[in-house]
Amino acid sequence: MLVEFILTHREELIARARGKVANRLAPRPTDLELASGVPLFLEQLAETLRLASTSMKLTMDQSATRHGAALLERGYTVAQVVHDYGDVCQAITELAEELSAPITTDEFRTLNRCLDEAIAGAVTEFGRLRDQSAAHAETERSGVLAHELRNRISTAQLAFEAIAAGRAPVGGSVAAIVRRSLQRITALVDRSLVEVRLESGTIQRRPIRVDRLMEEAEVVATMEAVAHGVALSVAPTAGDIEVEADPQILAGAIANLLQNALKFTRRGGSVTVRTLTVDGRVEIEVEDECGGLPADKREELFGAFQQRGADRSGLGLGLFISRKGVHACGGVIRVRDLPGRGCVFTIALPRCAPSAPTGSGSLPV
Amino acid sequence: MMVPPSVEMGGRPARILVVDDERDNRELLDLILGWEGFVVLSANDGEQALAAVASDAPDLILLDVMMPGMDGYEVASRLKGDATTHQIPIIIVTALADTNDAKARGCSAGAEGFLAKPIDRDSLLRVVKAMFRTTYPGYQE
């Protein structure tokens, strides 16, 4: 019987299959796959074979479903699932031939059928759970956004009511709360719209003069710098520097870097912005005095909902979307640590040839 | 501009400590409560709140839950565990979606009251004034 053969030669089969998985070129096996994946696949196959011999089709499906869920939990990809089953099956066939095991053709047919069933069941469940998880993350993200919007609207309402009731002057600090809340609401909505455009692939790349983009960013950031007590210095950008990008997305990414730099720089510190041209690229650098970045956190900064410091204002979505946006425009965002002092975020985009002069029109953002 | 009324406790103004990491929230609570005649003190994190209470104890604390570093539950728990501060009533303020869980955690930390964000003026004043009335016999509006 094939099941007995598998159970008797379990260790040898695991060693052989593990060797096949380890030597596989693509998809590359992971450490976890090598350590615990192969025994898991072998056991699943033995269980499926045993159930098949008793014609328990329903139970066999349930077993494969459980297996699919277990694989997803362990971080397997669909390709790994398919290949690992194949490697285990090959190991069984080879060893059976070498040992001239008394396994009938029918049993090998059953083995193949079980392999198909196990792969189909595991992959189906795997896909279902992955979709469910993505939908859950999306719902959670919408919830955070709605929550943040509601809080900001409520703050603006309370402040407005105080002014309307004559309990606060029109031009004082309460009016500033209304203004900050409205700015934040606008930023949240803009960011969501950018995200929708990125998701739907409807970005519009066209040549943009970087000096105009930087002038616009400076005007907005100057107000914020004053509020944070931070000195903002923006080096002049030459008028002939252009990049091909979606104006709204690039302006949003620059604004996001500036906003973060001002937020995390201590009061009395400074934020410096400069535009460089390096080997056919345009690099927009935003240098802050945040105190430096922990080495292990640099990549995490770009994750969705990551917060960089103690100041939790904002959704934590900024860098994540900015990176996606700049990437969609053919560029990259990277960060360089200035240990103990701060860090430099850089947006790098390919430089494009200057377009014909168009006079002093307003910035297309 | 109208003139705010006053609230007193045995001849001195009633004092509230507002603990919130969001500046706008602190300023708004200051405005609303100040207008009702309360003296409002503020702290922007848990450490500052503990220091403020230790140096000059307020009559009531409005305590935000979600703060960087020490959260509101931890602050409440420390204040309630200290014989010199355990009598100060604490109202937990939270924007957490699961308000039942927040209430339960606030209660176990020793808080006496609960307010959900976003805060509306009427609920805030109702809860704060009720807390003063039930805690301090000398409280006068």
Q: Can you describe this structure?
A:
The complex is a heterodimer of chains A (about 375) and B (about 140). Chain A has about 375 residues and is α+β, with helices and mostly antiparallel strands. Helices cover about 60% and strands about 15% of the residues of chain A. The radius of gyration of chain A is 29 Å and the shape is elongated. The N and C termini of chain A lie far apart (about 70 Å). Chain B has about 140 residues and is an alpha/beta fold. Chain B has one domain: Response regulator (Rossmann fold). Helices cover about 40% and strands about 20% of the residues of chain B. Chain B has 5 helices and 8 strands; from the N terminus they run E-E-E-H-E-H-E-H-E-H-E-H-E. Chain B has helices spanning about 25-35, 45-55, 70-80, 100-110, 120-135; strands at about 10, 10-15, 15-20, 40-45, 60-65, 90-95, 115, 140. Chain B has a 5-stranded parallel β-sheet with strand order 4-3-5-6-7, with helices on both faces. Chain B has a 3-stranded antiparallel β-sheet with strand order 2-1-8, with no helix packed on it. In chain B, helix 3 (about 70-80) runs parallel beside helix 4 (about 100-110). In chain B, about 40% of the residues are buried. The interface between A and B is medium-sized, with 25 and 23 residues.
